[in-house]
Write a sequence for this structure.
């Protein structure tokens, strides 16, 4: 990943965090609280997202460590396998999206929901670009593998 892209993505995440915290601060002083408290459900969804994201990043990192072990031989790009990689090009993006929706459920603000939708849209678009890259660069990549969400899109 290029430095400029990394800075842009990091800035987007930092901005999202600041906006959600600010909206949460403003909504804390409102007199009427939501009828349904989604904090515990949101925490569960958040944890599922974090664990799924970690697991799929672990699978990706293990591919890199396998490449560095065989530095003497010329290595070519390997299509990730395991977990939801069997069905989805970027399952770590899917679980990152799940994490944002968990945060939105805990915050119970419209701003947090919009942030989750916006981040998920961005991650979905990046998944489509990643699939296009795989199809062009990696021989034998399964063309029926969905970019973002298993069996749907």
């Amino acid at each position: 990943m290029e430095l400029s892209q990394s800075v842009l993505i990091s800035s987007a995440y930092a901005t999202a965090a600041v906006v959600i915290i600010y909206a949460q601060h403003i909504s804390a002083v409102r007199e009427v609280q939501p009828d349904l408290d989604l904090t515990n459900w949101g925490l569960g969804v958040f944890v599922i997202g974090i664990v799924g994201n970690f697991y799929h990043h672990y699978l990706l990192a293990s591919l890199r460590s396998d490449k560095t072990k065989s530095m003497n031989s010329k290595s070519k790009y390997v299509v990730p396998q395991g977990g939801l990689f069997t069905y989805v090009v970027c399952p770590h993006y899917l679980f990152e999206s799940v994490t944002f929706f968990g945060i939105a459920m805990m915050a119970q603000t419209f701003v947090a929901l919009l942030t989750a939708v916006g981040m998920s849209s961005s991650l979905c678009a990046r998944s489509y670009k990643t699939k296009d890259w795989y199809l062009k660069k990696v021989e034998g990549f399964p063309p029926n593998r969905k970019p973002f969400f298993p069996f749907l899109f």
In short: The chain has a mean pLDDT of 84. The helical segments are 3-28, 39-69, 91-107, 110-137.
